[in-house]
């Protein structure tokens, strides 16, 4: 064959060639060590055994570093001249390129071989060994031992060359300047090498992913897969990689169809997967179509399978542990995963470094612009650094201090542009900047912004600001709080908006623990005192009182006691209930805790309040100031829990209290419900466990050992109790408010100190004073103490503390004795009435009071029975109608038939009250029949006292009674009584009846009265009353000047009414018209029917 027709690169893969390769392998592999690589002597151009046909023609010609101008194509042409049919081995070409240091040509050759799928081991091992790229000085050696670099010849004897080395070390060792003839060539070659290395690393990662995929799929045992194949009805469980692929497709479907919230939730539930990158699935296959396409193609024929290429990563088993092969498959798999993951992470780091190197090379290659040109070019970008904001944006903070400085400059400009409703979001930023900013002036400005952040902050916004202030105070310390925060509070103390003043008041209390003690007891106390005295807003004064309480909890200057006491009295006298409630909930408990530390609670504070109560009673003999009494007594009541705590803490047994062991729980009803947690005895003591242990020892000490050596309790028994009982005896028993306040005080006092203390210390002192024994009853003078408020306060404040059977019996016996004693001694019944009113307000005691009254109903003395009848009047209003029907009415009917007329008369007020309050018709009929018997029975015709009582009762209950009862019973009988009084011979009786009739008609005149009743009963009764008034003596003491004037108006009123009725006009219209005339002329209707007493 002619030489010109021979293609030296037209290599064949025929079987004949394959048979010749084994014999040629040895010579080819030996050639590098024997000198210049070349063909064996017999056949110089025969390819070696491991050579593969190339896929590209090497047509490039480069000059070697040694100056030899031998090109690859020329060498090939010379070789072909000796033989017509010879083919050049790719390994020979690669060896020649490496020998002559054509590194980039060899790299391009190696790349194209890889793309053709025919990797050459010689080139692969060369470019994988970092030793071949170490820097060397001078020209490349011509020795055959140095052809392939310091690594030596490529042979099987050196297994190190089969190891894969890091790409970054290979690149760092290249000296590109050696192979460049000009400046640009260096960058070109370096970029080419870097791109090659990057591609190699990505291919390696792809191969690792393929191995991971195969390893993960092999988790399903082969026997289990056979079972699934043999039984198609059994569905094979989903594999992890299949699950990740389906998750990716589902998330993609949700996003494409605008199910964004579902996609977010789905991503959160699969947080171990990156749904933005398909390669994260782990499969070494292309991304499949979306779910919609899969659904549409599910019924069509499946596409033909594509050609697949298996890619694997070689693992040298010599590197594995010695027992690796003998291990169980699961352990091998875990170890294999570990190796692959480690190599994957290492390669990923190398890829990042390679990418940075590529960027550097590109910058070096194309970044050769002059600075002036670059600046002029960049000027076309629209940037602004001239303004304040532009300067801040262009100057990025590079340290914590510079960040604080930047925030200090920017926040004053940010705050005004934030919505008022969202400004609290800036509080953390402002506070952090104020804490860490180095400039005091800037810190002051930031804190000023904080307190003026919101124009009128609501509760939640104030809480946020207060929380931030406390955090600031904890961080900066007392000195900076005094210097930076307090001035802001002082500036806002007189702000026009109450919300801002409220913020100041609350800040003083919140910052109290973080202020210097001298400032707490001077400046802050003065600020709060000024606000309490001058501020007009109730909510501000309430906050001031609470902050004062906090200040009192942290104050330690004994000289401030008098100032604190005056603040307490000032707050107690505040007209706002909110302020008074705050004083009891916060200030008084805190002030009491401080006085406890000083030891002045029972030596100064409580005696001072008692002295003011006594002074008030002394000054108020002709008119007691009940408001001040309530004020002092409520303060004394709030001091009961801290006083009891002092008694426990100073007891002889306090040191013996132990918390270990079984300690019974405190009964829920052991103590009265506290008004606030600060009044809870357990809180004052420290814990419920400690209180329970002390209570056990307290009860045992009182019951068995006494009070010897117990100074605090002895003061309560010997000084406090006698003084309180003496004060109780001086208050007015008719003042229901005072009786109620003292009863409440003694009830809380006894409940707090316990049942044993009440039975052994309190009750004996009251019983000694009351002297309820029968031999001490004086029928002529009466028993003075029984008419005082001591009786109702002892009954309702002491005897009702505990509601067991023996306690109820004691209360019943005491009330029965009082009723008997007062009745037999003809003493006033005010104390007994006060007891019934106070006890009757609680339905629990209705049965008990009815028992006491029944005792009086069946008593042998008529005086006691009269008292019982009058007590029913007080009890009926609060008792339910069932008890009235079953217990009250039978008792009253029994008394209404009593032999003594005085007893029967005493029942009339109670019957009238029933008519006023009860709605049951049957019950009302029974009462109506009983009253009718009093009026119509002939035996009562001359009973002047009975008629007086009936008229008085009608006047009292008529306006509120049922209209039918008033129209059919009250008005007709009043008419009869007025008519009969005209014929009364005894002038004194006639005057009494006329006076009571006048009062009754005065009360009934404002009721709605029908025309028929007006004509038939009301006006005729008034005519009779007018006749009595005309005949009354002018010198009678009942008539006064005012009454004379009123009587004239009454006569005019009656005359006009009668004249109107006689001329046939509408009597009711004229009656109302006359009323209007009297009103417009200044004489009110109530003044017409009113007698001056």
TrEMBL record:
<dbReference type="InterPro" id="IPR011989">
    <property type="entry name" value="ARM-like"/>
</dbReference>
<feature type="compositionally biased region" description="Polar residues">
    <location>
        <begin position="129"/>
        <end position="140"/>
    </location>
</feature>
<dbReference type="InterPro" id="IPR016024">
    <property type="entry name" value="ARM-type_fold"/>
</dbReference>
<dbReference type="GO" id="GO:0055037">
    <property type="term" value="C:recycling endosome"/>
</dbReference>
<dbReference type="InterPro" id="IPR040362">
    <property type="entry name" value="RELCH"/>
</dbReference>
<feature type="compositionally biased region" description="Basic and acidic residues">
    <location>
        <begin position="18"/>
        <end position="32"/>
    </location>
</feature>
<keyword id="KW-0813">Transport</keyword>
<feature type="region of interest" description="Disordered">
    <location>
        <begin position="1"/>
        <end position="69"/>
    </location>
</feature>
<feature type="region of interest" description="Disordered">
    <location>
        <begin position="214"/>
        <end position="233"/>
    </location>
</feature>
<keyword id="KW-0445">Lipid transport</keyword>
<keyword id="KW-0175">Coiled coil</keyword>
<feature type="region of interest" description="Disordered">
    <location>
        <begin position="127"/>
        <end position="160"/>
    </location>
</feature>
<keyword id="KW-0967">Endosome</keyword>
<protein>
    <recommendedName>
        <fullName>LisH domain and HEAT repeat-containing protein KIAA1468</fullName>
    </recommendedName>
</protein>
<dbReference type="GO" id="GO:0005802">
    <property type="term" value="C:trans-Golgi network"/>
</dbReference>
<dbReference type="InterPro" id="IPR021133">
    <property type="entry name" value="HEAT_type_2"/>
</dbReference>
<keyword id="KW-0333">Golgi apparatus</keyword>
<keyword id="KW-0677">Repeat</keyword>
<dbReference type="InterPro" id="IPR006594">
    <property type="entry name" value="LisH"/>
</dbReference>
<feature type="compositionally biased region" description="Pro residues">
    <location>
        <begin position="37"/>
        <end position="51"/>
    </location>
</feature>
<feature type="repeat" description="HEAT">
    <location>
        <begin position="888"/>
        <end position="926"/>
    </location>
</feature>
<dbReference type="GO" id="GO:0032367">
    <property type="term" value="P:intracellular cholesterol transport"/>
</dbReference>
